[in-house]
Design goal:
Structural class: alpha+beta
CATH class: Mainly Beta
Oligomer: single chain
Number of strands: 9
CATH topology: Archaeosine Trna-guanine Transglycosylase, Chain: A, domain 4
Low-confidence stretches: none
Helix content: 10-25%
Radius of gyration: 13 Å
Largest sheet: 4 strands, antiparallel
């Protein structure tokens, strides 16, 4: 297994997401440490990126702890946010505007 891209932070070895330490453009190739991947959309600073493929219904792990659940399949290198995960902490109705905006992209 190789090292992951230095533009990504792995907060805990159990995590299935990275945190972006810089903005990353759509189409940018990255190394996940489990193989190559491509960023699916522009990623903002501090947003989550899938470290590996995540199945629908699978828990999203950050800091080694579950923070939400995947609502659909998420490929390695893809943005993990309201368009494909449900938070364990933030009520869904607070995120509805963001979710609708993500669907329009």
């Amino acid at each position: 297994m190789s090292q992951h891209d230095p533009r990504l932070i792995l907060l805990d070895p159990r995590d299935n997401v990275f945190v972006a330490r810089t903005r990353l453009p759509a189409g940018e190739p990255i190394e996940t440490g489990m193989g190559p991947a491509v960023i699916d959309r522009d990623i903002a600073l501090a947003h989550k990126i899938a470290r590996r493929a995540i199945a629908p219904g699978e828990k999203i792990l950050k800091y080694g702890a579950p923070i939400g659940v995947a609502t659909k399949a998420i490929a390695a290198g893809h943005h993990v946010h309201v368009q494909n995960m449900k938070s364990d902490y933030t009520p869904t109705y607070h995120l509805e505007d963001e979710r609708k905006a993500g669907a329009a992209e």
